[in-house]
C-alpha cells in the first residue's frame, strides 16, 4: 500500500498549494481514484506476510451541497437531505460569487466522512460545484424603499415582505432622486431560503450578491449632452466633497473647500453612484447659485455623482466599510455593520494596520475596492485599520 499512500500524499500537497482550479481538483480526485484501483489490484497479489507500511494515509474527498448559512467561522450546507455544519476557520473560501445563499458548492476535505459525523474530517477549501447544472441567475426584485444607508437598503416588496440588501460599493442610479416610499429595482444573485428568514415576512439578504439598484429597469444612465450656455448667474458649478454617511433621502458630506459637514438632499435630484455611497469616497455636487460654506441655502442642486472607481489608482481609492468582526476563515473576515448587514472581506495579501488581531468582537475599518468587488460578495480589500 505504499504506492497508495504516496499517491494520496502527493494529492494532499497539491491541493494545499492553493493555486488549483476546480477542474484541477476534480482531475486530482479522478486520478487518485484510478491509482486506488491500480494499487488495490496489485496489492492483492502480494504475499500476506509482507510487513505493513508505517506511512500515514491521507484521504481527500469532497461533499457537494446547497449553501444555507454562514456565520464567519461556520458554513452550513444541505446534501442529500442531510445538513452539515463545517468549522471553516482554517478553510479557504474560493467560490466565484463568494458566499451566496442557495449556491451549489463543494467542500474539499481531508479525512473520511462517516454519515453526518464531520469530527473526523478537516475542510480545506470551499469551491463551486464542478459542472454545476444550476448556476446562479440574475434576479430582479421590486419594492418600496423603507430606508437606505451606505451599506443597507431595506425595501418592502409587492407581496409585503421586508427585505434587507447589502449595497456596499454597489452601483446605484436614481433618476428622480431617492427617498422613503419610492419604488426601486434590485438586481442580484442568490435566493431567499428559510435560513434567510429573520422575522415575520422579514428577510436578510446579506448573503446575496447585489449587482445594482435603480428606479428604472433596466438601469440606464443617460449620456451627457451639451446644454445651452446658461445666464452667468445660473452657471453650473461643481463642489467636490467626501461622504460621511447616508440616511435615506439625505447625505452628509465634507466639502474639500470648507472642512465642515454639509447635509445634502437626495430626494428630488438625479443621483448616480457607480461605486456605491461608501464613507470616505467622494462625490461631485452639481449646482447653480452660491455656496456659503455652511449650508445648501442659496444653492440649487441639479445632480450628485459619485466618483468612478474604474479610473482610480489603488492609492486614490478611499471607500470604507466599518463593522464588528463576527469571525474569520483562512482568507476572509466577516463584519456586522452598524446599519444591519454582514459584509465579507478578503484578507488575501491585505495589510492589517489594526490592533484587533482579527479577534471576534473587535471593531474594524476596511478600505475596499468597489471596481474589483462587482462579481463576488467577498470584497477585494486594500487595508484594515482601527475605526
From TrEMBL:
The keyword Signal applies. Residues 1-19 form the signal peptide. The keyword Signal applies. Keywords: Signal. This is DUF5689 domain-containing protein. It comes from Blautia luti.
Amino acid at each position: 500500500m505504499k504506492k497508495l499512500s504516496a499517491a494520496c500524499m502527493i494529492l494532499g500537497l497539491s491541493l494545499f498549494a492553493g493555486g488549483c482550479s476546480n477542474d484541477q481538483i476534480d482531475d486530482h480526485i479522478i486520478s487518485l481514484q484510478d491509482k486506488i484501483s491500480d494499487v488495490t489490484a496489485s496489492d492483492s497479489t502480494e504475499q500476506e506476510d509482507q510487513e505493513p507500511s508505517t506511512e500515514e494515509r491521507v484521504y481527500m474527498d469532497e461533499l457537494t451541497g446547497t449553501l444555507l448559512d454562514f456565520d464567519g467561522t461556520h458554513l452550513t450546507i444541505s446534501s442529500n437531505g442531510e445538513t452539515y455544519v463545517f468549522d471553516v476557520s482554517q478553510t479557504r473560501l474560493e467560490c466565484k460569487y463568494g458566499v451566496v445563499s442557495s449556491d451549489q458548492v463543494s467542500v474539499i476535505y481531508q479525512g473520511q466522512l462517516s454519515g453526518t459525523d464531520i469530527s473526523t474530517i478537516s475542510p480545506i477549501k470551499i469551491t463551486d460545484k464542478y459542472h454545476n447544472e444550476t448556476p446562479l441567475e440574475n434576479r430582479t426584485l421590486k419594492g418600496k424603499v423603507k430606508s437606505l444607508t451606505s451599506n443597507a437598503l431595506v425595501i418592502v416588496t409587492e407581496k409585503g415582505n421586508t427585505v434587507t440588501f447589502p449595497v456596499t460599493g454597489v452601483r446605484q442610479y436614481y433618476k428622480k432622486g431617492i427617498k422613503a416610499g419610492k419604488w426601486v429595482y434590485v438586481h442580484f444573485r442568490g435566493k431567499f431560503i428559510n435560513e434567510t428568514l429573520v422575522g415575520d415576512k422579514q428577510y436578510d439578504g446579506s448573503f446575496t450578491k447585489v449587482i445594482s439598484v435603480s428606479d428604472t429597469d433596466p438601469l440606464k444612465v443617460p449620456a451627457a449632452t451639451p446644454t445651452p450656455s446658461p445666464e452667468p448667474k445660473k452657471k453650473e458649478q461643481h463642489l467636490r466633497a467626501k461622504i460621511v454617511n447616508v440616511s435615506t433621502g439625505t447625505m452628509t458630506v465634507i466639502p474639500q473647500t470648507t472642512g465642515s459637514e454639509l447635509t445634502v438632499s437626495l430626494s428630488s435630484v438625479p443621483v448616480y453612484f457607480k461605486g456605491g455611497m461608501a464613507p470616505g469616497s467622494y462625490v461631485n455636487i452639481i449646482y447653480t447659485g452660491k455656496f456659503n460654506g455652511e449650508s445648501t441655502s442659496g444653492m440649487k442642486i441639479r445632480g450628485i455623482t459619485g466618483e468612478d472607481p474604474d479610473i482610480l489608482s489603488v492609492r486614490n481609492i478611499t471607500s470604507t466599510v466599518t463593522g464588528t468582526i463576527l469571525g474569520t476563515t483562512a482568507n476572509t473576515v466577516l463584519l456586522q455593520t452598524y446599519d444591519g448587514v454582514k459584509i465579507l472581506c478578503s484578507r488575501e495579501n491585505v495589510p492589517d494596520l489594526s490592533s484587533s488581531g482579527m479577534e471576534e468582537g473587535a471593531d474594524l475599518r476596511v478600505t475596499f475596492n468597489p471596481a474589483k468587488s462587482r462579481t463576488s460578495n467577498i470584497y477585494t480589500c486594500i487595508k484594515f485599520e482601527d475605526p
